[in-house]
Prior knowledge:
Blueprint: H1 24-96, H2 100-110, E1 115-123, E2 140-147, H3 150-160, E3 168-176, H4 184-193, E4 197-204, H5 220-240
Amino acid sequence: xxxxxxxxxxxxxxxxxxxxxxxxxxxxxxxxxxxxxxxxxxxxxxxxxxxxxxxxxxxxxxxxxxxxxxxxxxxxxxxxxxxxxxxxxxxxxxxxxxxxxxxxxxxxxxxxxxxxxxxxxxxxxxxxxxxxxxxxxxxxxxxxxxxxxxxxxxxxxxxxxxxxxxxxxxxxxxxxxxxxxxxxxxxxxxxxxxxxxxxxxxxxxxxxxxxxxxxxxxxxxxxxxxxxxxxxxxxxxxxxx
Length: 241
């Protein structure tokens, strides 16, 4: 036969006694778990905020140090920029200066023995020295002299084209019988050399840069004229005194 427990459930003791806790215990345990989770999240967020604050302070300190360093180096940066600007200016001026000494040396080398050079005019543009060559944009030379004949003039023109930078050579005039009749030392030099043919050439350097005019620059002739006028004025004052 199967045993049957006839004691009412509320009066039973031991392992067979029913639980009397109910749902309240689960509610309390859930609330405690939520509180623990909230405290944990609060601690984690607080730690992260503190780390961010420390990082912000470090970044602000580094930014201040960088600004101080930049202010200390500002004069050097300004000097570097000014130095580069001056180098560019000097380079531009140097590039715009025409090398007349080199041209004169090369002209002396290519000048034939049977060609006499009596006059040489150099100019920075076609308006000054290359009036006979249409459209001369760069420096130019105007050469005058005498020689033995037309063949010598042709050889001289060919030799002038060998000068570095020459773009073209223009023959302005070439005539016989004017060497001995020319006035001055030039005519005497041609007559003594026995050269009867006179010529006039224009050598153009179209590709060469034109010299840059510097503002405030006074030509030497103007300075000498001003100086002579000042001297004359001072002498007149002394004589009047």
